[in-house]
Amino acid sequence: MTKETIFLFILILQFLTGVTSRKTCDETFCGKLRKSPEGYPRYNLDLSTIITEDNGIAGDLISHDGLYNLKFTILFEPPLVAFIIANIVDVKGMNPLRNTAADSLKLEKSTNETITVTFGTEKAILYSKPFKIELYSENQLVSVINGNNRLVVQTSPAELVTALDVVFHGVQQAYGIPLHADNLALRTTTDGRTDPYRLYNHNNGQYQLKSTEALHSSMPVLYTHGKGRSSGIFWSDVAHLWVDITHGYDEIETYFMSKTPYIAATLCSRPSIVDVMSVLYVATPNLPPYFALGYHQSRNSYANENEVLSVVDNFNKNNLPLESVWLDTNHTDNGKYFTWDPIRFPNPVRLQNQLALENRFLVVTIGQHIKVEKGYFVHDELSAKRFYIRNPDGSDYVGDSLPGDSSYIDFYNPSALEYYTTLFSLETFKARNLHVFLDLNEPTVFKNGHYENTLPPYLLHSPSIPHHFLHNAFGSTQLIATFEGLLKRQERPFIAARSHSLYDLNAGPQIIEDNFASWEHLEISFPMCLSESLVNINMCGANVGGFAGIPDDELYQRWYQAGAWLPFYRAHFAADVPPREPYMYSEQVKARVRRAMYQRYAHLPVWYTLFWENTIFLTRIIRPLFYHYPHEEATFTIDNELLLGANILVAPILKRDVYLMSVYLPGGENELWYNIDDNFKVFRGIGQRIVYVNLDSVPVFYRGGGIIVRKDIPRLTSAATVKDPYTLYICLNTTNGASGTLYVDDYKTYSFAENKFLYLGFSFSGNTLYGYKIIKDADYDGAAPIEDIVILRPPKNITRVSLNVRSIFYDNLGTIAYSSDRKVLKLSNLSLDLREPFELTFI
Ligand SMILES: *[C@@H]1O[C@H](CO)[C@@H](O)[C@H](O)[C@H]1NC(C)=O
Ligand SMILES: *[C@@H]1O[C@H](CO)[C@@H](O)[C@H](O)[C@H]1NC(C)=O
Ligand SMILES: *[C@@H]1O[C@H](CO)[C@@H](O)[C@H](O)[C@H]1NC(C)=O
Ligand SMILES: *[C@@H]1O[C@H](CO)[C@@H](O)[C@H](O)[C@H]1NC(C)=O
Ligand SMILES: *[C@@H]1O[C@H](CO)[C@@H](O)[C@H](O)[C@H]1NC(C)=O
Question: Which end of the chain has a smaller Cβ tally under 10 Å, C or N?
Fold first, then answer.
């Protein structure tokens, strides 16, 4: 064995034998609940207690032995149906829906055993003995609540848990409830060998692949989908949660087990999955600053100013794009956040200003784990004001984290949150050119295996909320506080984090935790990010090249090629592996990485438009195939391909030695797919097709009917592309039409809120390209012009082009050239202003 292989071997061994602190279902409250109803009371609905209000119906659930009494409320606001089950009387404050619907509840029928109510097109039948609810949408049975009679609500201090079964009808697959290192389509967990999907944010170290174990983010939204029906459930709490899934014939059975004192959930069912997703999702959409969408470089850890500058310099010298360099805790003075190491980073302001000259940024780690050290101004303030999370005896909790002994900021205390935001003021944290990474914000507590390396559940938040009630939200509370803090110093904050929750702001990427340089880890990053995308966590990415371990050249370049098509594109590697920035590699590898990066940059207008459209329409950015082909059953389990918007299909190469590849192309005989790396060779969407590949790229297809807006001049930053002209790729469909959109603004401020933007539509029909403003009263004067137009499967014998702008005609515009096989036409040397509606006719 060579020295290198021995090194690698030791690393892998360390990795495989690394201690994980993962708990199984049986080791938590889940074990007993999973056996329910054994050991728990069962309930009847007392029909005499039923009351109906304008959009809801409420009643009492009485246990068979008469000892337990629960209050139950169901509320309609189509397309949503919410329900609450609790043992407290006043559930009004918990109403997750406001009644803005025009309809009102109608009591249709009542017998001695059931009550039927309707609300617009929604219907519920409430059964008394035993209690269950059938929900119908447009007269189709879509779900049954407590159909298996496994409802649990236990609120004694000794056992504080809830559980509920919900069965979805007319569906074949289930998705969502990320984050798990598993396939996109959820599996049956009730086979006797599998634990339920677990949602409990913690640092799971060397997690297993194809597993239901919990990682560092938790989003309690689950979707089910079938050929004619889609449904979803939002389980609105942020405590420890387990979810069992069982696939039945044309139905999916779910069982939610949660460490909360009440149940509050929202359901939705519609014929279209996109409709369900536009109302059931987590996180507020947010438009990222442009640089977020470029390429980022991180390692554990760039040691000092000179190293940062030399990384940037090497990217420049090698013509490799770069947006930001990331620094971990070691940029601080001994682990004290909001300070700088005086030797490594003696002049952070100068460094940031120097980077700003070429539109590069620094991203630094900030923790909520604050070093316990007298004289450190942040700690002194937080401890004097009692702003830390406390032990039950009232003392500040101290755990081990990156800086050593640390206490944890209690963001549930509004004054603590306010103080934290002031730390981002320019006086404290000098220079503007700085963005943050909330590393280990699950939060991580090292050497705390008994509590799975996170905060113990019994700790107390202000005023006296046990930590376990809000555990899964902790990471997001810091995110929200940081967002507020950064707003005081800059526009459009960029905040990366590992731990996200349903309250997320989409203010930066979901970083997938410490992955390994293996093909399996590359492969799993696609279903993981697709799953995040479904629930609306928009900017997901896994460390390109893997964090631990050493990738060989083939894996390395494949990862750069594939990673360019996930929303967040960053490489990050461990302290104990040799440096692996792309410029460290051979010219050959470097050329392939560069090509992948340039392809990413060429499509930045597409990414940015999709991010903006998400903020308005809640359409997702990356999408599994079934999102657009919901009736095509073969797409339901595909998670090694993705759609970027509706018009780009990516089939990344996730395995070694691939020379021909089977790619699933959806849509049927009339859907055309153009392979962009093979002279736009056209395929029909009739399922698995063989594509020949080499090491230079991964298969990417444009959909016939789409217009893709690109910027094709290679640049080293996203900022440098802003003034470059656009190229429109018009991909004609079988009826020779195509359409697309483009969003443009200043890429960094909130001036879009004052209507300073362009949202444009393009459509091609009858040999004419139309360009127009979709939002007429918005305008922006900084957009670059369209310079070139490429038409795939173009009309024949085009000899000239005429332009009509405001009824003024221009003839013989630009330069027309057909490719030698006449399958591509390029019109170049235009200078079309995007602000004016135009008609461009090919004659
Ligand atoms: C409801 O009424 C039917 C007949 O109308 C009767 O057979 C049944 O036992 C009743 N159920 C209950 C729970 O009283
Ligand atoms: C970070 O700093 C710690 C403490 O100073 C040191 O032990 C460690 O080696 C440093 N890590 C890197 C990657 O520089
Ligand atoms: C082709 O694209 C045009 C424009 O988007 C659309 O109107 C037309 O329906 C499409 N034809 C087919 C067969 O999809
Ligand atoms: C295009 O031009 C060629 C040669 O001038 C001619 O043979 C052909 O019929 C033309 N095709 C169309 C669609 O007009
Ligand atoms: C581009 O267009 C300009 C005028 O619009 C013309 O002067 C120039 O020669 C054209 N260049 C090419 C390469 O066709």
Answer: N
